[in-house]
Every structure is written in structure tokens, then in C-alpha cells.
């Protein structure tokens, strides 16, 4: 199996920054893409940003210009630098990975880390 563990969430004020980290662990797996989603209670989980191993980067319109995704492919890690945070960024952030494990194709989720932005 492949496991994801996030870290870096917390409580900040409007305009401040946070950096989320996520590491994938397991045996004999290959990551195709890693990214971040967020969930606000009562709403659907939405994509924030993701990065494919081939180099494609995507961001939701709401975070473009403020958030930056990066990966350390050798360490199976993904980061999300979040700058100029706003109250509407408050959510549980989930790390996501698209991976191959042998002949199996997996979509893996972390347990989430809370980001809270006060006004």
C-alpha cells in the first residue's frame, strides 16, 4: 500500500503564509502525480493544485498567484506554499497521489491537515 502523511497546517491571520508538506511512503510504488485538495464542511472537496511527474502544474483559479506547488520527486514529497492567505482559504487540506503499485493503479489520500485563517 501507499500512505500519505501531511504536515504544516495551523492557524494564521489574513495575509500570512503557511507551507504544507506531504510525504508518500510504501514499497514498490511509482507516483504519477501529487497534489492538494481542500474541503470545507457542507461543500464538496475541491482541487487546489497538483503536479504531475511529467511537469504539468495546475492551480484552481482561487489560489493562482498566491499558492505554489512543488515536489521533491526523489523523496516522494509534495509541498504547497500558501502566501497571502485569506479567510476563505480556511479548510481541511488533503494530500492526494496518483500512483502505480505493481499492476494496480491507486488514488491515495492523506488524513488531512487543518488550515484556519482569521480575519
Summed over residues and divided by their number, the pLDDT gives a mean of 96
Counting DSSP E segments of at least 2 residues, the number of strands comes to 11
Please compute the radius of gyration using only Cα atoms: 14 Å
Q: What is the oligomer described by this structure?
A: single chain
Q: Roughly how much helix do the residues carry, as a percent range? A: under 10%
The main pleated sheet reads as: 7 strands, mixed
By helix and strand content, what is the structural category? mainly beta
Low-confidence stretches: none
Count the DSSP helices.
0
How far apart are the first and last residues' alpha carbons, in Å? 40 Å
- Shape type: elongated
Provide the β-strand percentage band: over 45%
Order of helices and strands: EEEEEEEEEEE
Detailed description of the structure:
With 119 residues, the protein is mainly beta. It is 0% helix and 63% strand. The chain is built from no helices and eleven strands. Strands 2, 4, 5, 6, 9, 10 and 11 form a seven-stranded mixed beta sheet that branches. The relative contact order is 0.33.
Which structural traits does this protein have?
single chain; 119 residues; mainly beta; seven-stranded mixed sheet; four-stranded antiparallel sheet; elongated
